[in-house]
Design a protein that fits this description.
With 495 residues, the protein is mainly beta. The protein contains six helices and 21 strands.
Length: 495
């Protein structure tokens, strides 16, 4: 669940050409739910597919809405904290992100229970849910040979200055960080390849996937519950990435420092259907099944980069360039495209223990390889090769995921205590690790009001490349650990 904001292993740079910026990490983030739900749902580990009777049912199994007997208004604020511990060249640094979020607010309207028709009662719900959260700060420092200029040198190979791209090689060349050799049509820098530099990498990520939804559910003679949700997910992802290096030991007479900053924003809207059922085998045993269609998104990217190079112009023989530092910016790039997320299937088994609580188990399946970018529907066939390259990368790098959840609640009159565990599979085909998430919660219930509190905690490990040099045998890597905590409070009023 939490992994979507931290388990992406790959390039976190928006690459130069439109259609390439839609990276593998965005496909994973948009395809993976990080649904917080209500505090009751969170406290029980999200294992409520077979139980329902909660506002969160609209987001995972809308059939559960049919078990809400009285109309209610619900809202959930959440205190979110993400501590990051990053290691680069054996140096460990800490950063964090904190904020207050509203993860849901909505209304459930339930009809009175009647025994005179096939459907005992109906429920109708609409509102807002947060399905995924991308807030994360990363800060890391290191000291090693190599520089991001090595990447730009490789990208510019064989291209004269008038043919280089405007987003990476172009800004680096414009600030005199790259030297062009007309005879060989190659680029170089002032640095010796073995020069060790002090390096710093900062990533500030934010955004979310939220949904506005409309749900219907019906209760057939207290035996079979059916439900349908029509969802409009809204995507917003913002990333600022800053790479900086400096020749602190003055190994080079000319080179002093280089900084490359990238900004990228993804936004858009989609449509999705969610259908589910709950079958009550007996008063004590219930089965649940839900299917989520792909979400069909219309997305837009906007991105730009800047480079700043500081150097000692007095050390350049026969130099005819202005003194440093020099700064150059790329144009603002934009690209519109479509994206389809994978199908999702969930099943659950719930055991009600008289009036003393429940025990529940959930299994969730999704196939990340079925995610698809479409660059041609809104851009003719201009970017067909880029579309195929991105979809081939999805198929070769990602796999299927089988996620497990278990939850429990103990009730004593109006008081409730809950606990839950989640085992979430990594989406990469070569990584079979599972993220572990635990949660606890408590609540009180009366005829007209309920209040629930839950705390969720996870520790996630990941790796990222601050930059990638095409063709290089090894790449610089930052190892990350994220301690992610959520404290949720749900208030509900029945009428």
């Amino acid at each position: 669940m939490i992994k979507i904001i931290s388990t992406v292993l790959g390039v976190l740079f928006f690459i130069t050409q439109p259609g390439i910026g839609q990276t593998l990490d965005n496909a994973i983030r948009i395809s993976t739910l990080d649904h917080t739900g209500t505090a009751r749902y969170m406290g029980a580990g999200g294992a409520m597919t077979a139980l329902g009777a909660d506002y969160s049912s609209a987001a995972y199994n809308p059939a559960g809405l049919a078990l809400i007997r009285r109309s209610e208004v619900v809202f959930t604020p959440v205190l979110f904290n993400n501590h990051s511990f990053s290691t680069w060249d054996n140096e460990r640094n800490i950063d964090q992100f904190n904020n207050l979020q509203f993860t849901n607010v909505g209304l459930v309207i339930s009809s009175p229970v009647t025994a005179s028709s096939t459907f005992t009662n109906f429920s109708f719900a609409f509102g807002y849910n947060r399905l995924a959260n991308f807030h994360q700060n990363i800060f890391s420092q290191g000291y090693s040979a190599g520089t991001i200029l090595d990447r730009f040198i490789a990208l510019g190979d064989g291209k004269p200055p008038e043919e280089i791209d405007d987003f990476e090689v172009g800004p680096a060349y414009d600030v005199y960080a790259l030297i062009y050799d007309d005879a060989t049509q190659t680029y170089s820098s002032d640095l010796d390849p073995e020069t060790k530099l002090f390096k710093e990498y900062t990533a500030i990520n934010s955004g979310s996937v939220n949904e506005i939804f409309l749900s219907f559910a019906g209760n057939m003679e207290e035996k079979l519950m059916l439900g349908l949700t029509m969802s409009m997910p809204l995507v917003s992802i913002t990333e600022d990435r800053i790479y900086y290096d400096e020749d602190v030991n003055h190994f080079n007479d000319i080179y002093e420092s280089f900084e490359f900053t990238e900004y990228g924003e993804v936004s858009g809207v989609g449509f999705q259907l969610k259908a589910g059922l709950i079958y009550r085998h007996s008063q004590a045993i219930r089965f649940g099944l839900a299917m989520h269609s792909p979400a069909w998104y219309s997305l837009s990217d906007e991105f730009y980069n800047s480079a700043t190079f500081d150097y000692d112009v007095s050390q350049i023989p026969n130099g005819n360039i202005p003194p440093g530092p020099q700064t150059a910016e790329s144009p603002i790039g934009s690209f519109d495209y479509n994206f389809t997320s994978p199908w999702r299937v969930m099943s659950g088994l719930g055991f009600l223990i008289a009036n003393q609580g429940f025990l529940s188990f959930d299994i969730e399946y999704l196939d990340y390889t079925s995610s698809r970018y479409n660059f041609t529907r809104r851009n003719s066939n201009q970017f067909l090769s880029e579309e195929r390259a991105q979809n081939n990368e999805i198929e070769s790098s990602l796999g299927t995921a089988l996620n497990f959840r278990v939850g429990a609640e103990w009730a004593n009159q109006s008081f409730r205590v809950r606990g839950g565990l989640q085992f979430i599979q990594n989406p990469f085909v070569e990584n079979d690790k599972r993220d572990f998430v635990w949660s606890i919660g408590a609540g009180i219930r009366s005829d007209d009001f309920f209040l629930d509190l839950a705390f969720q905690r996870s520790l996630v490990e990941s790796a990222l490349n601050p930059y990638v040099v095409p063709g290089a045998e090894s790449q610089p890597t930052i190892l990350n650990e994220f301690e992610i905590s959520r404290l949720a409070l749900t208030a509900g009023f029945k009428f």
